[in-house]
Specification:
Keywords: Germination, Lipoprotein, Membrane, Palmitate, Signal. The protein has two domains: 202 residues, no CATH class; 155 residues, Nutrient germinant receptor protein C, domain 3 (GMP Synthetase, Chain A, domain 3), CATH 3.30.300. It is globular. Helices cover 27% and strands 35% of the residues. Strands 1, 2, 3, 4, 5 and 6 form a six-stranded mixed sheet that branches. The chain has a four-stranded mixed sheet with strand order 10-11-12-13, with helices on both faces. Strands 7-8-9 form a three-stranded antiparallel sheet. With 392 residues, it is α/β, with parallel strands linked by helices.
């Protein structure tokens, strides 16, 4: 009997030795959680500058503060001869272990893009805690101010464009949100132009009671190709890009005829076909664009086919003007060189050193707009008529 008990005791002890212990357990409140990273470069001192946005631990469990309290945001600044040296420079004052795997966004400054982003991307993405699913932005704003821009109603900074860029873009596609993985891939693609949405601080549009408050906004796109910074375009300069990209979810067209406003359409569906022809080895692209739209406002009595015709004319003009803006700035806004590389490689090969980004590259533009919905009213019906009809 004693032998059996001894055997059981030895067996239990052996099982206990196999159990995993939590010797390195760290309390969650004893860790710094970085949620956004900013990367800058000072060409005069030839150093990289990194910024880290950290949230108070209370935001890990909840996304709002008690009434009357402002969200707590900590912003660190580090310097170094490389990206990683500048990031790890933050450790000297971090006080506690710092975790980078919760970073949702990385922001590049314009002057960093000008200095070359490929080396920066390499250094940043090699770190094991870097997630390629992070959102990628660019800005010419001071990153410390951008990271300090609050959300509404004392909510977490996680509820801003910096961390949730698609919330607004589903309602109005100012530009396309970009993942870091897409930037990494597109930088290595021949003939590909990388687009980075720009964030700016708007100081005038919103007030908290009588006091102005800062809010983030989309204000344009930065362009990079073959590690060369190509430039920046503000929102108004690339209206035509919306109609050549099927990923545009929702964007309005203000309808004008002879300088008079006649209505507003919201485009909610886009189909684009790019047809190439080659003349003496030079490509010419013809665009067929089909738009599905909803009527939001009708400021003048018109038939649906008249509204559609006006919209088609405006879209065609915007597409042409935006393309010419790109030619002037040497930016392939519609990705026509990449289209040639992917679908007409044999023709692209002799052109790759000096692709003809010129006015003749864009040929015919055919636009078809279909108004599929007129809202709660019939097409030519006023609110007064609808009310009277209901009473009858």
């Amino acid at each position: 009997m004693k032998r059996i008990m001894r055997s059981k005791s030895i067996f239990v002890l052996l099982i206990m030795l196999l159990l995993t212990g939590c010797w390195d357990l760290v309390d969650i409140q004893d860790i710094n959680y970085v949620v956004a990273v900013g990367l800058d470069y000072d060409p005069e001192r030839e150093i990289y500058i990194s910024y880290a946005q950290m949230l108070d631990f209370s935001f890990v469990a909840k996304q709002e503060q008690p009434p009357g309290q402002d969200p707590v945001v900590y912003i660190g600044r580090g310097e170094g001869k490389s990206v990683n040296m500048s990031l790890t420079n933050l450790y000297k004052t971090a006080q506690m272990k710092t975790l980078w795997s919760h970073v949702t966004t990385v922001v590049f400054t314009e002057r960093l893009l000008e200095s070359g982003v490929e080396e920066v991307i390499d250094g940043y993405t090699r770190f094991s805690e870097t997630r390629l699913s992070q959102w990628a932005f660019a800005t010419n704003e001071p990153i410390e101010q951008l990271f300090a821009t609050p959300a509404f109603f004392n909510l977490s900074t996680l509820l801003t464009l910096l961390h949730k860029p698609n919330e607004i873009l589903e309602q109005r596609t100012f530009s396309l949100a970009t993942r870091l993985k897409d930037v990494v891939i597109e930088l290595t693609e021949p003939a590909k132009t990388v687009q980075l949405p720009s964030l700016k601080i708007n100081t005038t549009q919103w007030k908290k009671n009588e006091e102005s408050v800062n809010k983030m906004e989309y204000d344009g796109i930065y362009f990079v190709k073959d590690n060369d910074y190509k430039g920046f375009l503000p929102l108004k300069a690339y209206q035509g890009m919306h109609w050549v990209d099927e990923r545009t979810e929702r964007y309005p067209i203000y309808l004008e005829e002879n300088g008079e406003g006649v209505g507003v359409l919201t485009v909610e569906g886009i189909k684009v076909k790019k047809k190439a022809e080659f003349v003496a080895g030079q490509p010419i692209y013809h665009l067929d664009i089909k738009l599905e739209a909803q009527l939001l406002e009708l400021l003048k009595e018109m038939e649906d086919h008249e509204v559609q015709k006006i919209a088609e004319k405006i879209v065609k003009k915007q597409v042409r003007e935006t393309f010419l803006t790109g030619v002037e700035k040497e930016i392939d806004l519609y990705g026509l060189e990449f289209e040639t590389y992917v679908n007409h490689y044999r023709e692209w090969e002799p052109l790759k050193e000096d692709f003809p980004l010129q006015e003749q590259l864009l040929g015919e533009i055919n636009v078809e707009v279909e108004v599929i919905h007129s809202g709660l009213l019939k097409f030519n019906q006023s609110a007064e008529e609808a009310t009277r009809h209901k009473k009858e």
